[in-house]
Specification:
about 450 residues, alpha/beta, Aspartate Aminotransferase, domain 1, Aspartate Aminotransferase, domain 2, seven-stranded mixed β-sheet, four-stranded mixed β-sheet, 15 strands, about 40% helix, globular
Length: about 450
């Protein structure tokens, strides 16, 4: 049997669903009524039963340039035929160095070094280790505490769950999370900010809670604060005006590193290369993944300010400076995908395109105001959140039913609890925005 035939059979009608333990999925319910995608191109998936499905979520916030783009496909194919793997420990290969040079040229401020990982989760854990290494190199070995934020999502490593603020994730592993962690309050305030277009007016003062943590813990025990500039996975929480700048000021005041988790916001999602550009705030470390390779091959990264890299490397004795890394760090196929992706972003002007579409996107989203059970709509760049009133005694049920109804009508949305989160590929057309929002509106009315 040929390899092609084997793949075709695996996608056929006799496919067994039992053996796979699916991530972040209600496995029993899914396997009773599966939703399977067989192929993708541009803005659309095709389901196994042959239906076209408009992608309203860029996969999982990651396919920013659209699906199966020829330049990326060719780059991965050529890399696979040229260099399938090369070790990154005490060895190297041109693909990873080329990608590092290319991507750091895009960064704001003095972020000019990159450490490659394989996912956003790994990037976050890497950033936390780099922060500790930095203070150890400076002789400030007491700086070991991290500050995250409630409702923040930083992946599924033990470090990321510890600094994260998604309660179900934390409860599941509470017994073994990192011990010296504090959390800032989240910024979600429907009472004052409902139906805001763009950045909310109220809430910048919530950054001042860092002063409370400093008083309780002492500034010289805190290594870093980590936040998503725009919290995505928890349901699209837009930062209040001035909030991130205030957080930067407080970190500078107390000598604390500021880490931006830009796994979602990086690579054009807000109409700029990074959220750091959009909000004009430069962090000390930045984590990315998803859009780095257009999700064609898994890859994550940590961007590092020059002084941090220089301190860690120059303070170390001869030999390895940072005892950390992954077998697949800077994998040739991932790096090739990254190079092709960044070239595509530039040649097609996709970041600028997202910025130009943002007003149309905003108006389309807010046209849903007044539909049954919608209690908030929020947006920034090409991101949208539609919050539904929870059904009494069944939180999350209404949102999930809208998600399933949308899929049955030919639209892929994402739902977290009772919040519909949208983040389409940056190649979306205005007519497709109309189709996406129209279908969601129909589904909300049908489920209500």
């Amino acid at each position: 049997m040929t390899e092609t035939a084997t793949i075709a059979n695996a996608l056929g009608s006799e496919l067994s669903l039992e053996e796979l333990w699916m991530p972040f999925t209600a496995n029993r319910a899914f396997k009773r009524a599966p939703r399977l995608l067989a192929s993708a191109s541009g803005m659309y998936y095709t389901s196994v039963d042959g239906r076209r499905v408009l992608d309203g979520t860029a996969g999982l916030w990651c396919v920013n340039a659209g699906h199966c783009r020829d330049p990326i496909v060719r780059a991965v194919q050529e890399a696979a035929a040229t260099l399938d793997f090369a070790p990154g420990f005490q060895m190297g290969h041109p693909y990873s160095f080329a990608l590092a040079e290319r991507v750091t040229a895009m960064l704001p401020g003095d972020l000019d070094h990159v450490f490659f990982a394989n996912s956003g989760s790994e990037a976050v854990d890497s950033a936390l280790k780099i922060a500790l290494a930095y203070y150890q190199s400076r002789g400030e070995t007491q700086r070991v505490r991290f500050v995250g934020r409630l409702r923040g999502y930083h992946g599924v490593g033990f470090g990321g769950i510890s600094v994260g603020g998604i309660e179900p994730n934390r409860r599941a592993y509470m017994a073994q999370l990192l011990p010296q962690i504090d959390h800032l309050p989240h910024t979600h305030d429907i009472a004052r900010n409902a139906f805001t277009r763009g950045e909310p007016v109220h809430g910048a003062e919530l950054a001042d809670d860092l002063e409370r943590i400093v008083r309780e813990r002492a500034a010289d025990t805190i290594a870093a604060v980590i936040v998503e500039p725009m919290a995505g996975s928890t349901g699209v929480l837009i930062p209040p005006k001035g909030y991130l700048k205030r957080l930067r000021e407080l970190c500078d005041k107390h000598g604390i590193l500021l880490i931006f988790d830009e796994v979602i916001t990086g690579f054009g999602r807000l109409g700029t290369p990074f959220a750091a550009d959009y909000f004009d705030v430069v962090p000390d470390l930045m984590t990315v993944a998803k859009g780095l390779t257009n999700a064609a091959v898994p890859m994550g990264a940590v961007f590092v300010r020059h002084g941090i890299y220089d301190t860690v490397v120059n303070a170390a004795p001869a030999g390895i400076e940072l005892f950390h890394g992954y077998t697949y760090s800077g994998h040739p196929l991932a790096a090739a995908a990254g190079l092709a992706t960044l070239e595509l972003y530039e040649t097609e002007g996709l970041f600028e395109r997202a910025a130009s579409l943002a007003p149309y996107w905003e108006n389309a989203l807010h046209s849903l105001r007044g539909l049954p059970h919608i209690i908030d709509i929020r947006n920034l760049g090409l991101v949208g959140g539609i919050e539904l009133e929870p059904r009494p005694g069944a939180p999350g049920a209404r949102g999930f039913e809208v998600f399933v109804d949308c899929f049955n009508r030919g639209v892929l949305a994402r739902v977290t609890g009772d919040i519909i989160a949208l983040s389409p590929p940056l190649i979306i057309e205005k007519s497709q925005i109309d189709e996406l929002i129209g279908t969601i509106g129909t589904a909300i009315k049908a489920v209500a």
